[in-house]
Structures are given as structure tokens and as C-alpha cells.
């Protein structure tokens, strides 16, 4: 009996389970481990944070995907990996010993060691963290009613990457609801974004990036660029602009500081002794660790290099699903005949679209630049496809985005 252990029920891990349990016969056992008993659409966390979606809108039970005759699901926290002894350590269950291991443990918010971030800024890397942001925003609106201090209406977003930009859009959609709760006008809710780079959205053409930036600014958002956040205090962000030698230091008061300056792979990866950087490993062409061929690294813990590039592909749900599918096929092959697939993992992106609120978006899809209404619909179709690829038809019917025409 061969034992395949899959760690993490995000896009990548759940995709492996979904595909592999259709393929294996009686002599293979699968075990899936996740700290939660639900899967969530990490691409929509910003909407839960803003309160434009409920946690239940973007999540579904792992039990909907798991076939108990093949797969055992364990809800627990992975605490360590012992690669030499092929063992996974869990917080509340016995150690698991594997023949093959799939590490799909996802990402955490990266503070880059900036003082005060862990204590005073709100991360948005999990469903619980996104929901905590929403609850915090509601509490700040209530507090404003009590003390009438405008810093309770101020929101600072640290970092204008895709996550920060998408969050701005959702917060703009939520402005009226938040303002009603605080008893103020929507324009009194101040959304500020502090971004280190002066060259935003570098993956897009200059024209498309400018469109995105102007779209965000048209919402009355204060976008401060070329500003590195150097410290976070309770209700205050410190940032520096200009050359490091003669930089000008400024501060901004806000009772809500949301941290979206980037993510790293699960800390379990660094601790396990893989050759990794910020929780990410450059895997082999079959997505296995170069030193442990029975260990796969997929999703946000993998840094996959394009054949002709020197920067890894961006970590997205789309590539995570592709990796999950490839690994299920590769494992099915190894479990049947002991051989890897003859073809390596390859990836072709369907496109990259940032949604800015429910009705605006921009990006590139199938080689075309898309803006506005059409881009928003395209994004929802890509999201439906992700849902379909993991959860199947049942989840699309329950949670799919059918408001394509708004
Ligand atoms: P990111 O690394 O892409 O962006 C972080 C931003 O924060 C950067 O612009 C960086 O300059 C800025 N920053 C870093 N340190 C800072 C500091 N001290 N002060 C001010 N600004 C600072 O991170 P992300 O936006 O979380 O995205 C993570 C990954 O997920 C990316 O690969 C992204 O493409 C992907 N993603 C994709 C989508 C989508 O396809 N729609 C949505 C969200 C995220």
C-alpha cells in the first residue's frame, strides 16, 4: 500500500486530491491535511476584508471534494516536516509517514522585518484574517460615532501590488455601507495607499498600467508612490520618500492599516531545510524537490521559472491549479509504473486581470488588453473556471459568479 500525503487544501493541494482520487486503485491511500475544514477562494479575500462578500460566499467544505473511500481528511496544523524520515508532524494527531508528499501549504503575509508590522498592521493572507479586517473596520466606524476622531475613518493600505489594488476597489464599493455605519458621507472615508515603487503594475504595458492607476485615483483614493513604509505604530504609518541618503520621513494617522506588501511561502518550508528563499523552492521539471524526488512543492511554496526568463512566474490561482493537475498526473504515472511523466510541467497563462470593485477591472486575457466592463466579466469567468476546476459543477452552481452583466 503506497501512502500519498497532501498538505494544504488550497487551489493546488485540493486539485491534486480531486484529480488523483479519480485515478488511483485500491493499493494507494491518500491523506489530505489542512488546518481548516473548508477551502476558500484566496483570490477573493479582499472582498471579505471590505465586507462586500461574506466568508461563506468564497468558501466551501473540503468534504465536498474528498472521496472517503480513497482519501482521509485530517483537520490539523502541520508543525514540521522530517524529510530524512519521510514524516509529517501535526499539532494534535500522530506523525504521518509518507511514500510521496505534496507540499501545498500556501502563503503568509510578509512583513520584511519592518518594525511594528506584526503588532499594528492587519495581514490579509487567510479567510480568518480577511474577516478580522472587516470586523475591525466595523468597530472603527462605531468608534468614530463615539469620539468623532477622523483617524477612525482613515484607512492605509501598505503596498499597491495586485492585492492592494484589488482591495482598494472593494473598499471603494464598501464606502457607502461603512459611511452609513459611521454616520458620515462616503467621501469622509479616506482610502490611502502607500507604495514604495514609482513604477506601478510593472507586468502591464505603460498604457494599461496608467489606465489602472487613473481608475484607482478616480475613486478619490490617495495614492502615494515612491514611499517606503519604514515603521508602523498603533494608528500611525511612517514612510520615507527620496534617495535613502537624504530621504524625507513623513507619517500618516489611520486606525486601520492593512498590509499588502507581498507574501512568502509557508514558514514550514524554510524550517524543513529545503533549499528555499522566503518559503519558496525552485522545483525540478516535475515539480519535485531537487534533493527529495518523492516530495512535490506546488502553489505558493514553489517558484517555477519560465523556460526563457530569470524571474519566477507570479504565484496565482491559475498556475497553482495547473501545478495540481500536473502533479496528479505525474503521481498517477509513478504509482502505476514507477516513472515520471515524460513531459515536464509547462504553463501558459490565460491572462492576468485585476478587478477594481465589482464592475471595473483591467488586465490582459488571451493576448489582449482588457478594460472596464469586459475585463470585469472576463475576471469573473476566470474565477468560475477556478471554482469549476477544483470544486466541480456543484460548487459553481452554489458559489459561481453569475452576475457577469452586473
Ligand atoms: P506584490 O509583491 O505583487 O506587491 C507588493 C507591493 O508592495 C509592491 O508594489 C511593492 O513595491 C510594495 N511594497 C513592498 N514593501 C513596501 C514598503 N515597505 N512600503 C511600501 N510599499 C511596499 O504582492 P501582492 O500584491 O500581495 O501579490 C502577490 C502575488 O499574488 C503576485 O504574484 C500577484 O501577481 C498575485 N496576485 C494576483 C492577482 C490576480 O491575478 N488578480 C491578485 C492578487 C495577487
TrEMBL record:
GO biological process, one term: aerobic electron transport chain
Membrane-spanning ranges: none
Keyword ATP-binding: no
Keyword annotations of the record: FAD, Flavoprotein, Oxidoreductase
Single GO term (MF): NAD(P)H dehydrogenase (quinone) activity
Key word Flavoprotein present: yes
Limits of the FAD/NAD(P)-binding domain: 3-324
Gene3D superfamilies for this protein: 3.50.50.100
Pfam families noted in UniProt: Pyr_redox_2
Swiss-Prot/TrEMBL cofactor(s): FAD
Family note: Belongs to the NADH dehydrogenase family.
Protein name per UniProt: NADH dehydrogenase
Amino acid at each position: 500500500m503506497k501512502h500519498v500525503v497532501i498538505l494544504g487544501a488550497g487551489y493546488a493541494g485540493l486539485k491534486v486530491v480531486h484529480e488523483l482520487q479519480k485515478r488511483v486503485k485500491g493499493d494507494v491511500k491518500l491523506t489530505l491535511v489542512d488546518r481548516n475544514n473548508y477551502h476558500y477562494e484566496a483570490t477573493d479575500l479582499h472582498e471579505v476584508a471590505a465586507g462586500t462578500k461574506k466568508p461563506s460566499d468564497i468558501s466551501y467544505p473540503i468534504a465536498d471534494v474528498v472521496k472517503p473511500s480513497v482519501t482521509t481528511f485530517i483537520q490539523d496544523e502541520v508543525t514540521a516536516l522530517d524529510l530524512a524520515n519521510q514524516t509529517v508532524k501535526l499539532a494534535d494527531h500522530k506523525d504521518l509517514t509518507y511514500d510521496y508528499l505534496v507540499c501545498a501549504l500556501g502563503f503568509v503575509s510578509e512583513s520584511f522585518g519592518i518594525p511594528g508590522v506584526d503588532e499594528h498592521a492587519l495581514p490579509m493572507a487567510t479567510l480568518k484574517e480577511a474577516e478580522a479586517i472587516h470586523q475591525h473596520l466595523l468597530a472603527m466606524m462605531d468608534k468614530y460615532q463615539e469620539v468623532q476622531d477622523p483617524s477612525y475613518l482613515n484607512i492605509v493600505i501598505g503596498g499597491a501590488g495586485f492585492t492592494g489594488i484589488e482591495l482598494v476597489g472593494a473598499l471603494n464599493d464598501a464606502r457607502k455601507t461603512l459611511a452609513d455605519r459611521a454616520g458620515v458621507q462616503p467621501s469622509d472615508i479616506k482610502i490611502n495607499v502607500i507604495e514604495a515603487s514609482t513604477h506601478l503594475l510593472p507586468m502591464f504595458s505603460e498604457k494599461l498600467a496608467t489606465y489602472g492607476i487613473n481608475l484607482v485615483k478616480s475613486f478619490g483614493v490617495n495614492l502615494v508612490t515612491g514611499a517606503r513604509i519604514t515603521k508602523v505604530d498603533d494608528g500611525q504609518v511612517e514612510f520615507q520618500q527620496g534617495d535613502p541618503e537624504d530621504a524625507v520621513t513623513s507619517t500618516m494617522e489611520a486606525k486601520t492599516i492593512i498590509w499588502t506588501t507581498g507574501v512568502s511561502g509557508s514558514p514550514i518550508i524554510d524550517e524543513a531545510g529545503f533549499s528555499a528563499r522566503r518559503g519558496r523552492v525552485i522545483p525540478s521539471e516535475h515539480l519535485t524537490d531537487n534533493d527529495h524526488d518523492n516530495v512535490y512543492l506546488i502553489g505558493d511554496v514553489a517558484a517555477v521559472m519560465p523556460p526563457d526568463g530569470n524571474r519566477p512566474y507570479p504565484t496565482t490561482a491559475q498556475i497553482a491549479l495547473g501545478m495540481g493537475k500536473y502533479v496528479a498526473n505525474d503521481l498517477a504515472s509513478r504509482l502505476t509504473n514507477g516513472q515520471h511523466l515524460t513531459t515536464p510541467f509547462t504553463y501558459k497563462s490565460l491572462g492576468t486581470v485585476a478587478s477594481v470593485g465589482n464592475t471595473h477591472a483591467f488586465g490582459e486575457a488571451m493576448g489582449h488588453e482588457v478594460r472596464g466592463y469586459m475585463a470585469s466579466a472576463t475576471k469573473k469567468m476566470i474565477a468560475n473556471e477556478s471554482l469549476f476546476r477544483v470544486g466541480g459543477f456543484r460548487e459553481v452552481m452554489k458559489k459561481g459568479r453569475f452576475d457577469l452583466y452586473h
